[in-house]
Amino acid sequence: MLLYDYFRSSAAFRVRIALALKGISVERRFVHLVRDGGMQKKKAYREKNPQALVPALELDNGVTLTQSVAIIEYLDTLQPTPRLIPDDPILAAKSRAVALAVACDIHPLGNLRVLAYLRDELGQSEQAIADWRKRWVHDGLAAIEQLIDPAPFCFGAQPTIADLCLAPQLFYAARFTIPLDAFPKVRAVGATCDAHPAFRAAHPSAQPDAE
């Protein structure tokens, strides 16, 4: 399998954690999201992923999967242990809910292309963009703070898809110095993830294309 990756992408970070937890080795191709106007916008990559986003996972049969949550669910089927979607249907739904709260509600509003539109098309200042970023991260994490039950991961002793989505969002918050003092449970989960070998191996700073 071939993973189209970028070290700083929160979505790609999620998939790297899943691969590390499951011990699945893949070939990697790095898609720089800024250099040369963004490699993800080039025709060759758009033919793989028409959304021009990372990650994408190209299977050995030539099929390409997109969207990090879908890829993680595929990997959970491909290699059932450790389980990232709990067997218990209620815990599975809760884990997916937190994962989607990040992937659908928080992360897209701070995505590179959204911020570029605010800056370049709507003429927003850097301060306005910083305020925008902080607003949606805070709103989303405030809800997640109430949804999770750390023990010590979001929903128990083992990481689930919820943790795979939350940890990269916390990296994003740290990168932009967004304070998280109001979210002790979220921060506790983040500390647990930071100490886990798979999360460390997947961290942006540990990637070959890190800058």
UniProtKB/TrEMBL annotation:
SUPFAM superfamilies attached to this UniProt entry: GST C-terminal domain-like, Thioredoxin-like
A GO term for molecular function: isomerase activity
Domain of life of the organism encoding this protein: Bacteria
Record carries keyword Cytoplasm: no
Keywords of the record: Isomerase
Pfam family, one: GST_C_2
Domain GST C-terminal stretches: 88-211
Keyword set includes Isomerase: yes
Domain GST N-terminal, first and last residues per copy: 1-83
Similarity remark: Belongs to the GST superfamily. Zeta family.
NCBIfam families per UniProt: maiA
Name recorded for this polypeptide: Maleylacetoacetate isomerase
Taxonomic placement: Bacteria, Pseudomonadati, Pseudomonadota, Alphaproteobacteria, Hyphomicrobiales
